[in-house]
Structures are given as structure tokens and as C-alpha cells.
Amino acid sequence: MLELQHVSKWVNTGSNRTFILKDVNLTVKQGEFVSIMGPSGSGKSSLLNIIGMLDEPSEGEYSFMGEAVHKLKEKHRSALYKQYIGFVFQAYHLIDELTVYENIETPLIYQNIKGSERKGMVADILDRFQIVGKKDLFPTQLSGGQQQQVGIARALIAKPRLLLADEPTGNLNSKQGEEIMDLFKQLNNEGVTIIQVTHSDKNAAYGSRIINLLDGRIDNQS
């Protein structure tokens, strides 16, 4: 599904080059559930952002669904992202001015899906997450767990082939966190490829493979 070859990311400060990622090689197959672990500052979120096309590597090659991402123009890359990738953030990234319903609907508007079709898709996912009763509320009226559910519903609404999750349970209590991880496992069983960044050994164990990052390099894979 995706392959990174000799990917590095750095920032230049004066004449010094500081590496965030260094010579990362990684292949993820369709249907895998990969957990990325490592201490703070090891480059986990940067790696996820490059895979999710929110950032570009300083050097190296990235192919996704047979496309050479590092060679694509911004517009083509953006279309690829919208078609195939869903992103779940620790900080939810919901739009405060929009209701739950409108937040979840947003990706479909970007994809130019017709209004009647959007209605049905949003209704289905509200039902799946059992948040139909919350659809007219605003994010600030929800608990952390509910906000994260809405964030995941929004990431899944367009039926992505790849779900990227950055510390998806970081702001949740253990019961909420477990519910989210069980949902991820279920989605993975349905064929969604998942890559999550986590500090939690328990969450990492949901994955079929664990990748450890240290100082921007892949330390080992299990």
C-alpha cells in the first residue's frame, strides 16, 4: 500500500542541520495495523504527517497506492489524501463553530458528494457511533470522549482505505480509550489499514506490528 525509502526530514538552523527523521525505510501492506512507538521527540508525529501527506520529506521517496507522492504536485497529492486517508488527532481538531453533524459532514463536502447522499452517510455513521442525539450540539458541549468519537466519525465518513491516528486515546480515560481501540480493531478487521502513534504498550498491542523510533530512526520492528 505504501513504501518509504531513505526518507529523512531535517530543519536547518544557521549552518546546523537538525534531523527529525533519518533514513527511514518502511513498507506497510493493505490491511495491516501498525503501531509506532518511541520517546517524545523521536519523530513519530513527523513520520505520520509525511505518510498522511500533511508534510513533505527533506529527501527520500514515498510511494502510496502506486503513486510516487514525492513527485506529485500539491493538487494531485491533496486529491490522493482526500480519497484514501482519514486522520485522527489527539487534539480532536473539531471546528467549534460547526455542530457535530456539520463537523462530520465536512470531508464529504470537500469530495463534492451530493447533499442527499451526504445525509444518508452522516446518518449511518451517527448511528454507528451512537451519537445521533448529539448531532446538533457543538464540540464545546461534549466530553473529551465524545469529541474524540466525533473526530473518528469524521475521519471515517469518506470510507478511507488508510486511517492514521496520532495518540488517539491521549486525552481519554481508560474506558473511553478501550472503546476507541476496540473500534479500531473492528475497522481493521473490516479491511481498513491503520497506522497509530502511541505511548501506550496496551494500545500498541492492538496492532499486528510495532515499530520503534529512536532519534528519528527505526530502532527495531516486531
Keywords:
222 residues, alpha/beta, Rossmann fold, six-stranded mixed sheet, four-stranded antiparallel sheet, 7 helices, globular
Descriptive account of the structure:
The protein contains 7 helices and 10 strands. It has helices at about 45-50, 75-85, 100-110, 115-130, 145-155, 175-190, 200-205; strands spanning about 1-15, 15-30, 35, 60-65, 65-70, 85-90, 160-165, 195, 210-215, 215-220. The protein has a 6-stranded mixed β-sheet, sandwiched between helices. Strands 2-1-4-5 form a 4-stranded antiparallel β-sheet. Helix 3 (about 100-110) packs parallel to helix 5. The protein starts with a strand and ends with a strand.
What can be said about this structure in brief?
The chain is built from 7 helices and 10 strands.
Q: What's the CATH H-level homologous superfamily?
A: P-loop containing nucleotide triphosphate hydrolases
> What value does the average pLDDT take?
92
Q: Please state how the strands of the largest beta sheet are arranged side by side.
A: 6-7-8-3-9-10
For the record, what CATH class applies?
A: Alpha Beta
List the helices and strands and how they pair.
Elements: E1 2-13, E2 16-28, E3 33-37, H1 44-51, E4 59-64, E5 67-68, H2 74-84, E6 85-88, H3 100-110, H4 115-128, H5 144-156, E7 162-166, H6 174-189, E8 193-197, H7 201-204, E9 209-214, E10 217-221
Parallel strand pairs: 3-8, 3-9, 6-7, 7-8
Antiparallel strand pairs: 1-2, 1-4, 4-5, 9-10
Helix pairs in contact: 3-4, 3-5
